[in-house]
Amino acid sequence: MNEFDAMNLALKLAKAEQGFTSPNPPVGAVIFKNNAILGAGATQPYGGPHAEIMALREAGSSATGAAMAVTLEPHSFFGHTPPCTNAIIAAGITKVIIATTDPNPLVSGNGVRQLQNAGITTEVLQQNNSQSAEAQELIAPFRHWLNHKEPMGIAKIAMSMDGKIATSRRESQWITGPESRRAGHLLRQRCDVILIGAQTLLQDDPLLTTRLPDEKELRVRHPVRVVLDSQGRTPATAKMLRPDTPGKTIIAATPATPEIWRETMRNAGAELLILPATVAGRVDISALWQELGKRGCITALIEGGATVLGACFAANLVYRAHIFLAPIVIGGVSALSPVGDPGFAALADAPRFQWSSAEHCGEDIYIFGKKIENYP
């Protein structure tokens, strides 16, 4: 096991923990010596041990004189857990390879310095290194949350090849194939919150749960469901409010909603979040994002519909896009497009994304894009 392979394994371990560690970032660590893996681990749910500690526990006394590959700079202060740097030093690790530094100002650079001051050879991969870039993307939501105090908005769009998400009769199930739907559920599992509007709820009556029936060995995590409902239209009979539906539902409403409806929602098991209204009378999406940030949500998956996506793009909240493109043409001026009003009247104002990957997903094409910040 060389350093490159050890880091690849650490990255794989970190990827598997996406969504399970919030608000902490997912991290993987591997301890190796003489081409053998001695210990490996990943960050546990919030408040639990970090990746380095899990790997050290597995390696035990054999960690002495070994090297460690870790996807993020080891944390160096007393928080919910003791400093990982102390444990690494005490274990006798002689070399640490770090994929990327920690954006947390309490750690950034300090973890590296503590290891170096203890005589440990410490290497940080160059930012343009492919493994470093992968590690940086893994912690991108965490970095965004640190900088903005709100979750990173992630748009998920399933559409026809001519850019429609529903027919003129509002028929939308199913435009994409089963492979894309499964990929969408894996994406849900990695996010803290999933967001729709009241119109989508009334139209589709979705569960908004993570469903992976063919992957029995996978852990299942259900994002918190958030419904934007400015007028109080959510019915108590909604599937997501049934007692046997796993996960939590939040209804984000305005002060204009009737009190009797609010009480009905509370009795049905939903949490009511009363937020300021815009001039148009809709829930202030920026106020919702601030509230979610306070709750430690670092990722918010926006599944629609067009009105919600339009509001999120207009408020500059979308930084990642997962697009599932089906080989079907729907057509029609009245057929729905993914992003509704207000849109951008000038191309210079429109957010621009960089395609990071495109791959086949069954008969569909799955495209992933990152927003180009500070464009142009």
Structure, explained:
The chain has about 375 residues and is α/β, with parallel strands linked by helices. The protein is built from eleven helices and 14 strands. The strands form two sheets. It has a nine-stranded mixed beta sheet with strand order 10-9-8-7-11-6-12-14-13, sandwiched between helices. Helix 4 links the parallel strand 4 (about 95-100) and strand 5. Helix 1 runs parallel beside helix 5. The longest helix is centred in the N-terminal third of the chain and has 14 residues, at about 5-15. The radius of gyration is 23 Å and the shape is elongated. The model has no long low-confidence stretch (mean pLDDT about 95).
Helical residue percent? 25-40%
Please provide the ordered H/E string of secondary-structure elements: HEEHEHEHEHHEHEHEEHEHEHEEE
Q: Label the structural class.
A: alpha/beta
Average predicted confidence as pLDDT: 93
Q: Could you name the ranges where pLDDT drops below 50 across 5 or more consecutive residues? A: none
Distance between the termini: 44 Å
Taken from the alpha-carbon principal axes, the silhouette is elongated
